[in-house]
Protein backbone atom coordinates (compact mmCIF):
# COMPACT_ATOMS: atom_id res chain seq x y z
CA UNK A 1 0.00 0.00 0.00
CA UNK A 2 1.33 3.46 -0.94
CA UNK A 3 1.22 6.05 1.86
CA UNK A 4 1.41 9.79 1.28
CA UNK A 5 4.24 11.83 2.79
CA UNK A 6 2.19 13.23 5.71
CA UNK A 7 0.96 9.76 6.75
CA UNK A 8 4.45 8.31 6.37
CA UNK A 9 5.79 11.07 8.60
CA UNK A 10 3.14 10.97 11.34
CA UNK A 11 3.14 7.20 11.68
CA UNK A 12 6.88 6.66 11.38
CA UNK A 13 7.76 5.95 15.00
CA UNK A 14 4.70 3.73 15.51
CA UNK A 15 5.67 1.71 12.42
CA UNK A 16 9.42 1.35 12.85
CA UNK A 17 10.06 1.07 16.60
CA UNK A 18 8.47 -2.42 16.86
CA UNK A 19 10.78 -3.59 14.04
CA UNK A 20 14.03 -2.57 15.77
CA UNK A 21 15.68 -5.20 17.95
CA UNK A 22 16.66 -3.67 21.32
CA UNK A 23 19.00 -6.59 22.09
CA UNK A 24 21.04 -5.97 18.94
CA UNK A 25 22.09 -2.46 19.98
CA UNK A 26 25.50 -1.80 21.59
CA UNK A 27 24.16 -0.52 24.90
CA UNK A 28 24.89 -1.57 28.49
CA UNK A 29 22.27 -3.84 30.00
CA UNK A 30 22.14 -2.24 33.48
CA UNK A 31 21.78 1.44 34.35
CA UNK A 32 24.62 3.11 36.24
CA UNK A 33 23.21 6.06 38.22
CA UNK A 34 19.54 6.87 38.76
CA UNK A 35 18.65 10.50 39.49
CA UNK A 36 15.31 10.37 41.30
CA UNK A 37 12.97 13.21 42.23
CA UNK A 38 10.74 12.36 45.19
CA UNK A 39 8.62 15.43 44.46
CA UNK A 40 8.32 18.14 41.87
CA UNK A 41 6.85 20.49 44.46
CA UNK A 42 9.10 22.91 46.27
CA UNK A 43 8.66 25.20 49.23
CA UNK A 44 11.45 27.53 48.09
CA UNK A 45 10.35 28.80 44.67
CA UNK A 46 13.51 30.12 42.99
CA UNK A 47 12.86 32.55 40.14
CA UNK A 48 15.05 30.60 37.69
CA UNK A 49 13.81 27.06 38.44
CA UNK A 50 14.31 25.00 35.28
CA UNK A 51 11.93 22.40 36.73
CA UNK A 52 9.20 25.00 37.14
CA UNK A 53 8.69 23.62 40.67
CA UNK A 54 5.59 24.99 42.42
CA UNK A 55 4.45 24.91 46.03
CA UNK A 56 1.26 22.95 45.42
CA UNK A 57 0.15 20.35 42.93
CA UNK A 58 -1.71 17.05 42.45
CA UNK A 59 -0.72 13.91 44.39
CA UNK A 60 0.96 12.63 41.22
CA UNK A 61 3.52 15.44 41.67
CA UNK A 62 4.96 13.59 44.69
CA UNK A 63 4.13 9.97 43.94
CA UNK A 64 7.72 8.77 44.32
CA UNK A 65 7.79 10.31 47.82
CA UNK A 66 5.26 7.60 48.80
CA UNK A 67 7.45 4.73 47.54
CA UNK A 68 11.00 4.94 48.92
CA UNK A 69 11.43 1.20 49.48
CA UNK A 70 9.85 0.27 46.13
CA UNK A 71 12.21 2.70 44.42
CA UNK A 72 15.38 1.34 46.03
CA UNK A 73 14.30 -2.28 45.50
CA UNK A 74 13.53 -1.56 41.84
CA UNK A 75 17.02 -0.10 41.40
CA UNK A 76 18.61 -3.11 43.06
CA UNK A 77 16.64 -5.43 40.73
CA UNK A 78 17.80 -3.30 37.78
CA UNK A 79 21.42 -3.66 39.02
CA UNK A 80 21.85 0.12 39.21
CA UNK A 81 25.11 1.25 40.83
CA UNK A 82 24.01 4.47 42.55
CA UNK A 83 21.00 6.56 43.52
CA UNK A 84 21.01 10.36 43.52
CA UNK A 85 18.04 11.87 45.34
CA UNK A 86 17.58 15.06 43.37
CA UNK A 87 16.33 18.54 43.92
CA UNK A 88 13.72 19.90 41.53
CA UNK A 89 11.38 19.89 43.96
CA UNK A 90 13.27 20.06 47.14
CA UNK A 91 13.91 16.63 48.74
CA UNK A 92 14.07 18.08 52.26
CA UNK A 93 10.38 18.92 51.84
CA UNK A 94 9.98 15.10 51.96
CA UNK A 95 12.07 14.09 54.99
CA UNK A 96 10.24 10.79 55.55
CA UNK A 97 11.02 9.71 51.98
CA UNK A 98 14.68 10.71 52.20
CA UNK A 99 15.21 8.94 55.52
CA UNK A 100 13.44 5.77 54.40
CA UNK A 101 15.32 5.72 51.08
CA UNK A 102 18.64 6.16 52.92
CA UNK A 103 17.74 3.38 55.33
CA UNK A 104 16.91 1.02 52.46
CA UNK A 105 20.05 2.03 50.52
CA UNK A 106 22.14 1.21 53.59
CA UNK A 107 20.40 -2.19 53.94
CA UNK A 108 20.82 -3.03 50.24
CA UNK A 109 24.36 -1.56 49.94
CA UNK A 110 23.35 0.96 47.27
CA UNK A 111 25.55 4.11 47.30
CA UNK A 112 23.44 7.26 47.55
CA UNK A 113 23.88 10.99 47.07
CA UNK A 114 21.56 13.86 47.99
CA UNK A 115 21.19 17.04 45.91
CA UNK A 116 19.50 19.72 47.99
CA UNK A 117 19.20 23.41 48.69
CA UNK A 118 19.99 22.42 52.30
CA UNK A 119 16.75 23.88 53.62
CA UNK A 120 13.00 23.32 53.51
CA UNK A 121 10.57 26.17 54.05
CA UNK A 122 7.90 23.53 54.73
CA UNK A 123 9.62 22.03 57.78
CA UNK A 124 11.48 24.29 60.19
CA UNK A 125 14.27 21.76 60.77
CA UNK A 126 17.74 23.10 61.56
CA UNK A 127 20.66 21.84 59.45
CA UNK A 128 22.03 20.06 62.54
CA UNK A 129 18.75 18.19 63.13
CA UNK A 130 18.38 17.36 59.42
CA UNK A 131 21.95 15.99 59.26
CA UNK A 132 21.50 13.98 62.46
CA UNK A 133 18.27 12.41 61.14
CA UNK A 134 19.86 11.54 57.79
CA UNK A 135 22.92 10.09 59.49
CA UNK A 136 20.80 7.92 61.78
CA UNK A 137 18.80 6.68 58.78
CA UNK A 138 21.96 5.84 56.82
CA UNK A 139 23.76 4.16 59.74
CA UNK A 140 25.67 1.03 58.80
CA UNK A 141 25.98 1.93 55.11
CA UNK A 142 29.11 0.65 53.39
CA UNK A 143 29.53 3.90 51.44
CA UNK A 144 29.14 7.27 53.18
CA UNK A 145 26.41 9.61 52.00
CA UNK A 146 27.43 12.34 49.56
CA UNK A 147 25.65 15.70 49.74
CA UNK A 148 25.60 18.40 47.07
CA UNK A 149 24.28 21.81 48.09
CA UNK A 150 22.88 24.33 45.58
CA UNK A 151 24.42 27.78 46.04
CA UNK A 152 23.61 30.49 43.52
CA UNK A 153 22.13 33.97 43.30
CA UNK A 154 18.58 32.67 42.91
CA UNK A 155 18.69 30.36 45.93
CA UNK A 156 20.42 33.11 47.90
CA UNK A 157 17.66 35.53 46.95
CA UNK A 158 15.01 33.17 48.41
CA UNK A 159 16.76 31.67 51.45
CA UNK A 160 20.05 33.50 51.98
CA UNK A 161 23.35 31.79 52.76
CA UNK A 162 23.16 31.32 56.53
CA UNK A 163 21.67 27.81 56.33
CA UNK A 164 24.50 26.74 53.96
CA UNK A 165 27.12 28.12 56.37
CA UNK A 166 25.48 26.13 59.16
CA UNK A 167 25.06 22.99 57.04
CA UNK A 168 28.75 22.96 56.12
CA UNK A 169 29.85 23.55 59.70
CA UNK A 170 27.36 21.05 61.13
CA UNK A 171 28.21 18.38 58.56
CA UNK A 172 31.91 18.72 59.42
CA UNK A 173 31.03 18.28 63.09
CA UNK A 174 28.26 15.64 62.92
CA UNK A 175 29.02 13.66 59.78
CA UNK A 176 32.68 14.18 58.90
CA UNK A 177 32.74 10.99 56.81
CA UNK A 178 30.19 12.33 54.30
CA UNK A 179 31.38 13.85 51.04
CA UNK A 180 30.25 17.43 50.41
CA UNK A 181 30.17 19.50 47.23
CA UNK A 182 28.62 22.75 46.10
CA UNK A 183 26.74 23.41 42.86
CA UNK A 184 26.66 26.94 41.49
CA UNK A 185 25.54 28.22 38.09
CA UNK A 186 27.93 29.47 35.42
CA UNK A 187 26.69 33.02 34.82
CA UNK A 188 28.38 36.42 34.95
CA UNK A 189 27.60 38.44 38.05
CA UNK A 190 26.80 35.55 40.44
CA UNK A 191 29.22 35.78 43.38
CA UNK A 192 27.25 33.66 45.84
CA UNK A 193 29.89 30.93 46.28
CA UNK A 194 32.52 33.64 46.79
CA UNK A 195 30.28 35.28 49.43
CA UNK A 196 29.79 31.88 51.08
CA UNK A 197 33.57 31.35 51.21
CA UNK A 198 34.00 34.76 52.84
CA UNK A 199 31.31 33.93 55.46
CA UNK A 200 33.10 30.66 56.26
CA UNK A 201 36.55 32.23 56.34
CA UNK A 202 37.43 29.76 53.57
CA UNK A 203 39.65 30.21 50.54
CA UNK A 204 38.39 29.54 47.02
CA UNK A 205 40.38 28.45 43.98
CA UNK A 206 38.43 28.55 40.76
CA UNK A 207 39.64 26.79 37.62
CA UNK A 208 38.86 27.82 34.06
CA UNK A 209 36.92 24.59 33.57
CA UNK A 210 33.91 25.53 35.66
CA UNK A 211 35.01 23.87 38.86
CA UNK A 212 37.16 24.70 41.85
CA UNK A 213 37.90 23.97 45.49
CA UNK A 214 36.85 25.70 48.65
CA UNK A 215 39.30 25.08 51.49
CA UNK A 216 37.65 25.41 54.89
CA UNK A 217 39.47 26.68 57.98
CA UNK A 218 39.92 23.06 59.10
CA UNK A 219 41.81 22.33 55.88
CA UNK A 220 38.95 20.23 54.48
CA UNK A 221 38.39 20.80 50.75
CA UNK A 222 34.95 21.08 49.20
CA UNK A 223 34.47 20.60 45.46
CA UNK A 224 32.62 23.48 43.77
CA UNK A 225 31.08 23.13 40.31
CA UNK A 226 29.48 25.91 38.31
CA UNK A 227 27.02 24.21 35.96
CA UNK A 228 25.67 25.61 32.69
CA UNK A 229 22.45 27.61 32.99
CA UNK A 230 19.40 25.66 31.83
CA UNK A 231 17.00 27.57 29.58
CA UNK A 232 13.83 25.68 30.44
CA UNK A 233 10.67 26.58 32.37
CA UNK A 234 11.52 29.63 34.54
CA UNK A 235 15.16 29.54 33.38
CA UNK A 236 15.36 32.34 30.80
CA UNK A 237 17.59 35.15 29.63
CA UNK A 238 14.99 37.58 30.99
CA UNK A 239 15.21 36.19 34.53
CA UNK A 240 19.01 36.47 34.40
CA UNK A 241 18.83 40.07 33.15
CA UNK A 242 16.29 40.99 35.83
CA UNK A 243 18.91 40.10 38.49
CA UNK A 244 21.81 41.81 36.71
CA UNK A 245 23.20 38.42 35.60
CA UNK A 246 24.18 37.26 32.12
CA UNK A 247 25.40 34.16 30.33
CA UNK A 248 29.18 34.07 29.80
CA UNK A 249 30.10 35.74 26.50
CA UNK A 250 30.98 32.44 24.73
CA UNK A 251 27.55 31.06 25.62
CA UNK A 252 25.82 34.27 24.48
CA UNK A 253 27.55 33.82 21.11
CA UNK A 254 26.45 30.17 20.92
CA UNK A 255 22.86 31.18 21.55
CA UNK A 256 23.02 33.96 18.96
CA UNK A 257 24.37 31.48 16.39
CA UNK A 258 21.38 29.20 17.04
CA UNK A 259 19.04 31.93 15.81
CA UNK A 260 16.57 31.20 18.61
CA UNK A 261 14.58 33.63 20.72
CA UNK A 262 16.13 32.26 23.91
CA UNK A 263 12.94 30.85 25.46
CA UNK A 264 12.81 27.14 26.35
CA UNK A 265 15.94 26.41 24.33
CA UNK A 266 16.94 23.49 26.53
CA UNK A 267 20.47 22.57 27.60
CA UNK A 268 23.04 23.86 25.14
CA UNK A 269 25.45 24.68 27.98
CA UNK A 270 25.29 21.48 30.03
CA UNK A 271 28.11 18.97 30.32
CA UNK A 272 28.04 15.86 28.14
CA UNK A 273 25.23 13.51 29.13
CA UNK A 274 26.21 10.31 30.91
CA UNK A 275 24.52 8.32 28.14
CA UNK A 276 27.03 6.40 26.07
CA UNK A 277 27.49 2.86 24.81
CA UNK A 278 29.27 2.08 28.08
CA UNK A 279 27.06 3.91 30.57
CA UNK A 280 23.36 4.69 30.77
CA UNK A 281 22.03 6.91 33.55
CA UNK A 282 18.34 7.23 34.38
CA UNK A 283 16.08 9.91 35.69
CA UNK A 284 13.06 8.94 37.71
CA UNK A 285 10.46 11.65 37.84
CA UNK A 286 8.21 12.42 40.80
CA UNK A 287 5.27 10.78 39.00
CA UNK A 288 7.26 7.52 38.76
CA UNK A 289 8.19 7.64 35.06
CA UNK A 290 11.69 6.48 34.21
CA UNK A 291 13.66 8.11 31.38
CA UNK A 292 17.11 7.59 30.10
CA UNK A 293 18.81 10.83 31.13
CA UNK A 294 17.56 13.66 28.87
CA UNK A 295 17.50 11.10 26.04
CA UNK A 296 13.94 9.95 25.91
CA UNK A 297 11.19 11.04 23.57
CA UNK A 298 7.88 11.84 25.26
CA UNK A 299 6.08 8.89 23.62
CA UNK A 300 8.30 6.23 25.25
CA UNK A 301 7.95 6.48 29.00
CA UNK A 302 7.06 3.87 31.61
CA UNK A 303 6.70 3.91 35.41
CA UNK A 304 8.88 1.89 37.76
CA UNK A 305 5.75 1.03 39.71
CA UNK A 306 4.39 -0.87 36.68
CA UNK A 307 7.43 -2.17 34.79
CA UNK A 308 10.76 -3.80 35.49
CA UNK A 309 13.94 -2.28 34.04
CA UNK A 310 14.24 -5.16 31.57
CA UNK A 311 10.71 -4.38 30.29
CA UNK A 312 11.63 -0.73 29.88
CA UNK A 313 14.93 -1.51 28.26
CA UNK A 314 13.24 -3.58 25.58
CA UNK A 315 11.13 -0.52 24.66
CA UNK A 316 13.66 2.27 25.20
CA UNK A 317 16.67 0.68 23.50
CA UNK A 318 14.81 0.50 20.16
CA UNK A 319 14.79 4.26 19.70
CA UNK A 320 17.15 5.72 17.06
CA UNK A 321 17.01 9.04 18.95
CA UNK A 322 18.61 7.38 21.98
CA UNK A 323 21.21 5.88 19.63
CA UNK A 324 21.88 9.35 18.24
CA UNK A 325 22.51 10.75 21.75
CA UNK A 326 24.77 7.83 22.66
CA UNK A 327 27.07 8.82 19.79
CA UNK A 328 26.61 12.59 19.46
CA UNK A 329 25.05 13.73 22.74
CA UNK A 330 22.42 16.51 22.76
CA UNK A 331 24.24 18.53 20.06
CA UNK A 332 23.43 15.61 17.73
CA UNK A 333 19.71 16.01 18.50
CA UNK A 334 19.98 19.80 18.06
CA UNK A 335 21.42 19.21 14.57
CA UNK A 336 18.46 17.00 13.65
CA UNK A 337 15.94 19.53 15.02
CA UNK A 338 17.66 22.25 12.96
CA UNK A 339 17.38 20.02 9.87
CA UNK A 340 13.65 19.51 10.52
CA UNK A 341 13.24 23.28 10.87
CA UNK A 342 15.18 23.70 7.63
CA UNK A 343 12.55 21.53 5.91
CA UNK A 344 9.76 23.73 7.26
CA UNK A 345 8.65 21.41 10.09
CA UNK A 346 7.84 22.67 13.59
CA UNK A 347 7.36 26.20 14.84
CA UNK A 348 9.20 28.56 17.18
CA UNK A 349 7.88 26.65 20.23
CA UNK A 350 10.05 23.63 19.40
CA UNK A 351 13.05 23.62 21.77
CA UNK A 352 16.31 23.82 19.84
CA UNK A 353 18.34 21.77 22.30
CA UNK A 354 16.13 19.26 24.05
CA UNK A 355 14.57 15.91 23.26
CA UNK A 356 12.79 15.57 26.56
CA UNK A 357 10.61 18.64 26.03
CA UNK A 358 10.00 18.11 22.33
CA UNK A 359 6.24 17.71 21.89
CA UNK A 360 5.79 18.41 18.15
CA UNK A 361 4.95 14.99 16.61
CA UNK A 362 6.04 15.96 13.09
CA UNK A 363 9.47 17.09 14.30
CA UNK A 364 9.78 14.01 16.50
CA UNK A 365 9.08 11.68 13.58
CA UNK A 366 11.28 13.67 11.19
CA UNK A 367 14.29 13.57 13.52
CA UNK A 368 13.72 9.84 14.07
CA UNK A 369 13.94 9.32 10.29
CA UNK A 370 17.15 11.37 10.21
CA UNK A 371 18.59 9.45 13.16
CA UNK A 372 18.02 6.13 11.36
CA UNK A 373 19.83 7.57 8.38
CA UNK A 374 22.74 8.87 10.42
CA UNK A 375 23.21 6.04 12.90
CA UNK A 376 22.96 3.07 10.53
CA UNK A 377 26.35 1.43 10.86
CA UNK A 378 26.77 1.89 14.61
CA UNK A 379 23.29 0.49 15.32
CA UNK A 380 21.22 -2.25 13.71
CA UNK A 381 18.12 -1.36 11.72
CA UNK A 382 16.37 -3.85 9.40
CA UNK A 383 15.80 -2.89 5.74
CA UNK A 384 12.10 -2.08 6.32
CA UNK A 385 13.10 0.54 8.92
CA UNK A 386 15.71 2.09 6.66
CA UNK A 387 13.24 2.18 3.76
CA UNK A 388 10.53 3.85 5.89
CA UNK A 389 13.04 6.45 7.13
CA UNK A 390 14.25 7.14 3.58
CA UNK A 391 10.66 7.64 2.43
CA UNK A 392 10.15 10.38 5.07
CA UNK A 393 13.53 12.01 4.40
CA UNK A 394 12.77 12.15 0.66
CA UNK A 395 9.14 13.27 1.03
CA UNK A 396 10.13 16.25 3.20
CA UNK A 397 13.42 17.09 1.57
CA UNK A 398 15.18 16.61 4.92
CA UNK A 399 18.94 17.02 4.72
CA UNK A 400 20.80 14.61 7.04
CA UNK A 401 23.47 16.64 8.88
CA UNK A 402 26.26 14.32 7.70
CA UNK A 403 25.25 15.01 4.08
CA UNK A 404 25.23 18.77 4.74
CA UNK A 405 28.83 18.77 6.02
S1 LIG B 1 15.72 25.40 41.91
FE1 LIG B 1 15.47 23.79 43.48
S2 LIG B 1 15.08 24.91 45.39
FE2 LIG B 1 14.75 26.35 43.71
S3 LIG B 1 12.53 26.24 43.24
FE3 LIG B 1 13.56 24.78 41.88
S4 LIG B 1 13.47 22.85 42.98
FE4 LIG B 1 13.09 24.46 44.48
- Strand arrangement in the largest pleated sheet: 6-7-8-5-4-3-2-1-9-10-11
Distance, first to last CA: 35 Å
Bound molecules: iron/sulfur cluster
CATH class (first level) name of the largest domain? Alpha Beta
What would a concise description of this structure say?
The protein is of the alpha/beta class.
Question: Would you mind describing this structure in some detail?
Answer:
- With 405 residues, the protein is α/β, with parallel strands linked by helices.
- It has helices at residues 5-10, 12-16, 68-78, 95-108, 127-137, 153-159, 162-174, 192-200, 237-242, 249-257, 309-316, 320-342, 361-375, 383-396, 401-404, and strands at residues 33-36, 82-85, 112-116, 146-150, 179-185, 203-206, 211-215, 221-227, 282-284, 289-292, 302-303.
- The chain has 2 domains: 5-25 and 319-404, no CATH class; 33-292, TIM Barrel (Alpha-Beta Barrel), CATH 3.20.20.
- The protein contains 15 helices and 11 strands.
- Strand 1 (33-36), helix 3 (68-78) and strand 2 form a beta-alpha-beta unit.
- Helix 3 runs parallel beside helix 4 (95-108) and helix 13 packs across helix 14 (383-396).
- It is globular, with a radius of gyration of 22 Å.
- The mean pLDDT is 94.
- It binds iron/sulfur cluster (SF4).
- Iron/sulfur cluster (SF4) binds next to loops.
Amino acid sequence: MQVDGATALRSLRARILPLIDPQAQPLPSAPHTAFAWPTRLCSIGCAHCSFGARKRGPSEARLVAEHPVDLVDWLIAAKARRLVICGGGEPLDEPAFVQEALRRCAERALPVELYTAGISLLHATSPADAIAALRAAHAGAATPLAVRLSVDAFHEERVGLEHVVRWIQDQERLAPEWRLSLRGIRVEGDGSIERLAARLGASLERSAKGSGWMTLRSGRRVLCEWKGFVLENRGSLAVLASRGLALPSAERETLASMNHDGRNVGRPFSARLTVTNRRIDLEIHACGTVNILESQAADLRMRFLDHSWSGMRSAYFRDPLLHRIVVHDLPGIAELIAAAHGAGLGGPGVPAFSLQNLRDPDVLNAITALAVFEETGGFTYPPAVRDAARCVVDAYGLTPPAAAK
